[in-house]
Amino acid sequence: MTTRHTIVDTTLGEITIVATGETITGLYFARHVRRPSAEVLGLGVATTEDELLGEAAWQLIEYLQGMRRSFELPLAATGDEFQQSVWAKVNEVPFGRTTTYGTIAAQLGDPRRAYQVGQAVGANPLCIFVPCHRVVGSAGALTGYAGGLERKRALLELEAPAAVAAGRLF
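User: That's the sequence. What structure does it adopt?
Assistant: Structure tokens below.
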């Protein structure tokens, strides 16, 4: 399977989208905390040269312009069993809503594993596509985000209903 990537200019800065075979396997900001090396990203291609990457870029831009609420892409994140279970729960959080690390830990059967849930959320290679920005601290505080807290705030504001945004503290 061929791994390749494209770089998309967005309102959040340059975003690299990675595909392996017929699935999207990564989405990374320029200064992403866990950004893979250039070798792992594969060959750079234009969105016009790759149908899958072109569609992923188009859907991302639509989302960032407020014209899309979910993604219809074949996604495949590489991670261990616990990470996969956390990412599946993150993917269930609806557009415009948030959850906490503790809530996800409880849903997975052990509310004491909130820290481990946070680690798995931070290792999500498909941020935005798997909306880890929707996971916040126990009191609603903005906590770590691989793309930086400013981007997390921007994504939450993008999704916030007007009435909620008006009353938000951050």
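The longest strand covers residues 3-10.
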